[in-house]
Amino acid sequence: ADITGPIVLQTYRAIADYEKSSTSEMALQAGDMVDVVEKSENGWWFCQLKNKRGWVPAAYLEPLDGPDESEEQEPNYAGEAYIVQKSYTAAEEDELTLKEGDTIEVIHKLLDGWWVIRKDEATGYYPSMYLQKAGGGNISATSELRNRSAPPRRSTIRNAKSIHKQRRKSISQATYRRNSRQYIQSRRNTLENLQNKANVIFEKNEHEENKPKAQPAVPPRPSKDLILTRCTESTRRKML
Q1: Could you identify which of 35, 56, 129, 144 might form a hypothetical disulfide with 24, taking C-beta atoms 3.0 to 4.6 angstroms apart as the criterion?
Q2: Where is 193: in which H helix or E strand?
Q3: How far apart are CA 125 and CA 90, in angstroms?
Q4: With b meaning 16 or more CB within 10 Å and e meaning fewer, what string describes 53-80?
Q5: Biased composition, Basic and acidic residues: where in the chain (predicted)?
């Protein structure tokens, strides 16, 4: 069998105290150094601290080498279609209220489990654990997470203390909306140009089909001398 090296876990620091609300979670104290075993995209991370293990909100953890997550994706204003699996009422101004069954587009997947989504031209945060990708099921959540509520957002954590002097990079909802509208307008213009080109080609083809066809010219009747010279004996008798 192949020999593999030890699994190296990422170490994070707790920025505030966290009181667990279920036996599957793990309590934290500000300054705790935890090893992250699993990063779930819904914002709940499975961590270990000495001889303890459990789920903790990603928003309560920060990397040691800087305030920003190197794994954080860039916004994708083309968007990915998702279906709302659970209704949620916005608790903050930069969140969206949606009901079960709504179709939305995800434009930025953030590691804390609160994704930036687009509904029509509105943008805002929404819990990723209440969303399912359109056209195919996501990997089913573990039993510990199925009945869990959305993790807290970093902006709602009181007494958060970071070891980094620089603040974490963030994009305002005004910027998300502006860039999203620019993308939508660009996409709309592209579709209109393609439709206009298709209409021009269709009209040209239709015009060609409706144009009257030229009739073949009737050949002139051969002269009597030509018939007598080139035709058969029976034809010449008829001419005489």
Answers
A1: 144
A2: helix 173-210
A3: 9
A4: ebbbbbbbbbbeeeeebeeeeebebebe
A5: 203-212
